[in-house]
Amino acid sequence: MTAQFDQHAFEQAAEELCRYGRILYANNWSPATSSNYSVRLSADACALTSSGKHKGELTPADILAVNMHGEPLTQGKPSAETLLHTQLYQRDAQIGAVLHTHSPTVVLLSQIWAQDSLSITGWELQKAFAGETTHEGTVTFPIFANDQDIARLASEVEQSMKNNGQGHAYLIRGHGVYTWGKDLAECFRHLEAIEHLLGYQLELLKLRQS
Ligand SMILES: [Zn+2]
To answer: What gap in Å lies between CA 133 and CA 199, rounded to an integer?
Structure first.
Protein backbone atom coordinates (compact mmCIF):
# COMPACT_ATOMS: atom_id res chain seq x y z
CA MET A 1 0.00 0.00 0.00
CA THR A 2 1.27 3.47 -0.84
CA ALA A 3 1.56 5.70 2.18
CA GLN A 4 -0.71 8.70 1.91
CA PHE A 5 0.03 12.26 2.93
CA ASP A 6 -1.18 15.69 2.03
CA GLN A 7 1.26 17.68 -0.11
CA HIS A 8 0.34 20.98 1.53
CA ALA A 9 0.89 19.49 5.00
CA PHE A 10 4.28 18.22 3.82
CA GLU A 11 5.31 21.68 2.57
CA GLN A 12 4.20 23.28 5.84
CA ALA A 13 6.07 20.66 7.87
CA ALA A 14 9.20 21.22 5.76
CA GLU A 15 9.11 24.97 6.44
CA GLU A 16 8.65 24.38 10.16
CA LEU A 17 11.48 21.86 10.34
CA CYS A 18 13.80 24.38 8.64
CA ARG A 19 12.77 27.05 11.13
CA TYR A 20 13.41 24.78 14.11
CA GLY A 21 16.71 23.71 12.56
CA ARG A 22 17.93 27.31 12.67
CA ILE A 23 16.95 27.59 16.35
CA LEU A 24 18.49 24.24 17.34
CA TYR A 25 21.71 24.97 15.49
CA ALA A 26 21.93 28.46 17.03
CA ASN A 27 21.53 26.83 20.48
CA ASN A 28 24.57 24.62 19.73
CA TRP A 29 22.45 21.49 20.02
CA SER A 30 22.96 20.24 16.42
CA PRO A 31 26.65 20.69 15.50
CA ALA A 32 28.45 19.48 12.39
CA THR A 33 25.38 18.26 10.41
CA SER A 34 24.35 15.97 13.31
CA SER A 35 20.76 15.57 14.57
CA ASN A 36 17.49 14.87 12.82
CA TYR A 37 13.98 16.18 13.18
CA SER A 38 10.58 14.98 11.99
CA VAL A 39 6.86 15.78 11.92
CA ARG A 40 4.03 13.29 11.43
CA LEU A 41 2.09 13.78 8.19
CA SER A 42 -0.43 10.94 8.55
CA ALA A 43 -0.84 7.51 10.11
CA ASP A 44 1.78 6.15 7.74
CA ALA A 45 4.11 8.99 6.76
CA CYS A 46 6.29 11.64 8.32
CA ALA A 47 8.44 14.55 7.08
CA LEU A 48 12.08 14.13 8.08
CA THR A 49 15.42 15.87 7.61
CA SER A 50 17.72 14.41 4.95
CA SER A 51 20.99 12.84 5.95
CA GLY A 52 24.07 15.00 6.47
CA LYS A 53 22.65 18.51 6.11
CA HIS A 54 23.83 21.58 8.02
CA LYS A 55 20.96 22.10 10.45
CA GLY A 56 21.29 25.86 10.58
CA GLU A 57 20.97 26.14 6.80
CA LEU A 58 18.13 23.75 6.02
CA THR A 59 15.87 24.53 3.08
CA PRO A 60 12.61 22.70 2.22
CA ALA A 61 14.59 20.70 -0.38
CA ASP A 62 16.46 19.11 2.57
CA ILE A 63 13.25 17.59 3.97
CA LEU A 64 11.74 14.39 2.61
CA ALA A 65 8.69 12.26 3.34
CA VAL A 66 9.19 8.66 4.49
CA ASN A 67 6.79 5.87 5.35
CA MET A 68 6.79 4.14 8.72
CA HIS A 69 9.33 1.61 7.47
CA GLY A 70 11.74 4.48 6.84
CA GLU A 71 11.45 4.25 3.05
CA PRO A 72 11.55 7.53 1.11
CA LEU A 73 8.33 8.72 -0.52
CA THR A 74 9.89 11.86 -2.02
CA GLN A 75 13.36 12.84 -3.29
CA GLY A 76 16.21 12.66 -0.80
CA LYS A 77 18.26 10.37 1.42
CA PRO A 78 16.64 9.76 4.81
CA SER A 79 18.67 10.25 7.95
CA ALA A 80 20.53 7.15 9.11
CA GLU A 81 18.45 7.27 12.29
CA THR A 82 15.04 7.31 10.58
CA LEU A 83 13.86 4.12 12.30
CA LEU A 84 14.19 5.78 15.71
CA HIS A 85 11.61 8.34 14.54
CA THR A 86 9.21 5.85 12.95
CA GLN A 87 9.39 3.59 16.03
CA LEU A 88 7.85 6.44 18.05
CA TYR A 89 5.17 7.31 15.49
CA GLN A 90 4.18 3.67 15.15
CA ARG A 91 3.83 3.07 18.89
CA ASP A 92 1.85 6.20 19.77
CA ALA A 93 -0.68 7.92 17.50
CA GLN A 94 -0.52 11.03 19.74
CA ILE A 95 3.12 11.71 18.82
CA GLY A 96 3.21 14.44 16.15
CA ALA A 97 6.88 15.47 16.20
CA VAL A 98 10.28 14.06 17.18
CA LEU A 99 13.52 15.96 17.78
CA HIS A 100 16.93 14.34 18.07
CA THR A 101 19.92 16.52 18.98
CA HIS A 102 23.57 16.24 20.08
CA SER A 103 24.07 19.02 22.63
CA PRO A 104 27.28 19.14 24.71
CA THR A 105 25.27 18.76 27.94
CA VAL A 106 23.50 15.60 26.81
CA VAL A 107 26.58 14.06 25.20
CA LEU A 108 28.81 14.71 28.22
CA LEU A 109 26.33 13.70 30.90
CA SER A 110 25.27 10.51 29.11
CA GLN A 111 28.94 9.61 28.69
CA ILE A 112 29.91 9.95 32.36
CA TRP A 113 26.65 8.67 33.92
CA ALA A 114 27.35 5.04 34.90
CA GLN A 115 23.76 3.80 35.36
CA ASP A 116 21.49 2.89 32.47
CA SER A 117 18.93 5.52 33.40
CA LEU A 118 18.91 8.95 34.94
CA SER A 119 16.05 10.07 37.21
CA ILE A 120 15.44 13.59 38.36
CA THR A 121 13.12 15.06 40.96
CA GLY A 122 12.63 18.34 42.74
CA TRP A 123 12.97 20.71 39.79
CA GLU A 124 10.16 23.11 38.89
CA LEU A 125 11.02 22.77 35.19
CA GLN A 126 9.86 19.12 35.19
CA LYS A 127 6.40 20.64 34.69
CA ALA A 128 7.43 21.55 31.14
CA PHE A 129 6.78 17.89 30.22
CA ALA A 130 3.23 17.15 29.08
CA GLY A 131 1.29 15.59 31.95
CA GLU A 132 3.81 16.44 34.69
CA THR A 133 2.11 18.67 37.25
CA THR A 134 4.54 18.94 40.13
CA HIS A 135 8.24 19.24 40.91
CA GLU A 136 7.67 16.36 43.36
CA GLY A 137 7.29 13.80 40.57
CA THR A 138 10.17 11.78 39.15
CA VAL A 139 11.15 11.99 35.50
CA THR A 140 13.34 9.15 34.22
CA PHE A 141 15.45 9.14 31.08
CA PRO A 142 16.68 5.69 29.98
CA ILE A 143 20.24 5.67 28.60
CA PHE A 144 20.96 3.26 25.75
CA ALA A 145 24.40 2.27 24.55
CA ASN A 146 25.25 3.87 21.24
CA ASP A 147 24.83 1.52 18.29
CA GLN A 148 25.40 2.02 14.56
CA ASP A 149 22.82 -0.71 13.93
CA ILE A 150 19.75 1.52 14.11
CA ALA A 151 17.20 -1.27 13.60
CA ARG A 152 18.66 -3.07 16.62
CA LEU A 153 18.67 0.13 18.69
CA ALA A 154 15.05 0.90 17.68
CA SER A 155 13.91 -2.53 18.85
CA GLU A 156 15.81 -2.08 22.12
CA VAL A 157 14.04 1.26 22.65
CA GLU A 158 10.67 -0.34 21.88
CA GLN A 159 11.30 -3.17 24.34
CA SER A 160 12.33 -0.73 27.06
CA MET A 161 9.19 1.35 26.50
CA LYS A 162 7.03 -1.78 26.68
CA ASN A 163 8.64 -2.77 29.97
CA ASN A 164 9.06 0.60 31.66
CA GLY A 165 6.67 3.02 29.96
CA GLN A 166 7.23 5.50 27.18
CA GLY A 167 8.41 8.43 29.26
CA HIS A 168 9.28 11.78 27.68
CA ALA A 169 12.75 11.22 26.24
CA TYR A 170 15.73 8.90 26.17
CA LEU A 171 19.48 9.38 25.87
CA ILE A 172 22.00 7.50 23.75
CA ARG A 173 25.36 7.36 25.47
CA GLY A 174 27.98 9.76 24.14
CA HIS A 175 25.59 10.59 21.30
CA GLY A 176 22.43 12.57 22.04
CA VAL A 177 18.78 12.67 23.04
CA TYR A 178 15.43 11.79 21.49
CA THR A 179 12.30 13.53 22.64
CA TRP A 180 8.78 13.83 21.23
CA GLY A 181 5.52 15.71 21.59
CA LYS A 182 2.11 16.19 20.05
CA ASP A 183 3.58 18.86 17.74
CA LEU A 184 6.88 20.63 17.16
CA ALA A 185 6.14 23.36 19.70
CA GLU A 186 5.54 20.85 22.50
CA CYS A 187 8.49 18.74 21.39
CA PHE A 188 10.78 21.79 21.42
CA ARG A 189 9.54 22.69 24.92
CA HIS A 190 10.46 19.19 26.07
CA LEU A 191 13.90 19.47 24.49
CA GLU A 192 14.52 22.86 26.07
CA ALA A 193 13.50 21.46 29.47
CA ILE A 194 15.84 18.48 29.02
CA GLU A 195 18.75 20.77 28.21
CA HIS A 196 18.16 22.78 31.38
CA LEU A 197 17.38 19.85 33.67
CA LEU A 198 20.38 17.83 32.52
CA GLY A 199 22.47 20.99 32.66
CA TYR A 200 21.59 21.32 36.36
CA GLN A 201 22.57 17.68 36.85
CA LEU A 202 25.93 18.15 35.15
CA GLU A 203 26.68 21.28 37.20
CA LEU A 204 25.70 19.47 40.41
CA LEU A 205 28.14 16.68 39.62
CA LYS A 206 30.92 19.24 39.15
CA LEU A 207 30.03 21.14 42.34
CA ARG A 208 29.98 17.95 44.39
CA GLN A 209 33.40 16.97 43.12
CA SER A 210 35.03 20.32 43.76
ZN1 LIG B 1 22.33 11.26 16.24
So the answer is: 21
